[in-house]
Amino acid sequence: MKTENRSTADPPHVLCVNPWIHDFAAFDFWLKPLGLLSIAAMLRDAGIRVSFADCLDRFHPKEDQPVKTARDGRGPFRKTPIRLADALPPLDEPLPRMPNTFSRYGIPPEWFKKDLESLDRPDLILVTSLMTYWATGVAETISVIRSVFPDVPVILGGKYATLCQEHATAHSGANLVVAGHGEPALEEIFRQFTGHGLDSDILNPDDPPFPALDLCTHLSYAPILTARGCPFSCDYCAASFLEPRMVRRSPDRVFAEISHWHHHFGVKNFAFYDDALLVNGPDHAYPLMEKIICADLDLFFHTPNALHIREITPRAADLMFRSGFKTIRLGLESANFSRNRRHDIKVLADEFFRAVSALKAAGFDSRQIGAYLLCGLPEQDLDDVAASMAFVRKAGIQPVLAYYSPIPHTPMWETAVSSAQFDITQHPLLTNNSLFPCVPSQDGIHRISRLKNRLV
Fold first, then answer.
1. pLDDT digits (tens, 9 = 90+) for 136-181
2. Coil/strand/helix, residue 428
3. Residue ranges per domain, the chain?
4. What fold, for 13-203?
5. Which fold has domain 221-453?
6. Could you tell me which of 271, 265, 255, 260 has the C-alpha nearest to residue 219?
7. Is the pTM above the cut of 0.90?
C-alpha cells in the first residue's frame, strides 16, 4: 500500500468498489454499477478525490487472454469455481438440488488485492450491490478490502443493501448499510466518518453530472437512464419499492450524455436501464429519439429491462428503428389473458399483435424482437409457459424466458416463502432463480430445462 503525506486541508479520498458476483451463471448483459458511478461523479464535482476498483472488470490491465466482446458490447466474465459451502452459513436443511457449478465471476482476488495495495489509503470506501442473491460476493469483496484497509470505514449501498438491509448489516462486513438512494445520506456519512462537510446542493443537484463511466478501464457500451421509477406495481417486481415515484430527465440532457460518451470515448452501444422508457413517450422518449435521428450518429440502442407493449405505436416503432434500436425486449410476462389469471394483465392479445406489427412495419427483423415470459412463479402451471412460448412464436418473434427470483418487499414475497421447496428466508442466495425455489418438483425443473432448450 502506498504511503502518503497528506495535509489535513486536502480533500478526502473516496474509493468506490463494484463487487464480485457469486452465482451459478453470470454474463455481462450490459451490466454497470450506474448508481455508484453517479455518486462518484457527484463527489468529484464536490472536489473529492475518487478512485474506482471494479471486481467485474472484463478489460483489466492484467488480463492476458483475448477479451471476448460481441458487437453489442456484451461478453463473458472471468469464472472461477468456488465451494458453495464456503459461501453459505450452515443451513437448517440441505438444498434439495444443485444446478451448475457455483462460481466467482470477475477478476482473481490477487488482482483485486494488488489494485487496492496500489492506491493511496482512502478515507472512505463505498461498495455497491445488485442482486440480493449475490450477497456472498459482496461479503467476499468487503473481506478482501478489510485485509488491505482494516481501519477504513466501508459503506454498503445498492439493491441488496436496500432490500435485505438487516441481512447486509449482519453479514456483509460493512460499517454501515444504507437503504435507498445514497445521495441523501452522503452528507451525514462524510461528517460522521471523515469529519469533512459536503454541500447538499452538489449531492442533490437539479442537473446531476454524467455518471463517472470514465473511471472504467474500457467502455464497450454505456448504460443510459432517462427516468427513475415505473408507473406499474407488478407483484413480482421491486421497482416500486426501490423507486416510489417517477423522476424524468430532460431529453436534451440525456442526448448530451449519449453524445458525450460517443464523441469522447467512441461508444456506439447504449443500454437503456429504464423501467418505463416509452411511458409518456411524446414528451419524453420521442424528443430524445428525434434528436438522435437528426444528429445522424449511427448508434446502437438496447432495451434489456423491457418496453411496455401498449406504448409501442407505429410512431414509436418508427422512431426506435430510425434512431438505431437493435435489441427490443417486450414485457409480455404471459399469454394467459383469462380473467382468472393470477397476476395483473397490463396488455391484451390484440395490443401485443399490434405492437409486433408496428415494429416489423418499421423495419425490425424478427430476430431483434423478444418477449419476456415469466417462468418459475409460485403455483405456476408450466403448460401456460409452453402455451405462451407458442403464442409469441405465432407472432413471429422470439420468446425469452425470465426466471423468477423471489424478492423481499414485493407483494409476491410471502406467497413465494410459503410456496418454496426450502426455506428461502435463511439466506438471500437461496432466492437465486437458478435454484427455481418455487418450482415444486424435480420433474418441473426438467420440464423448464426442456422448454429452455426449445429456445435455441
1. 999 999 999 999 999 999 999 999 999 999 999 999 999 999 999 8
2. helix
3. 13-203, 221-453
4. Rossmann fold (3.40.50)
5. TIM Barrel (3.20.20)
6. 265
7. yes
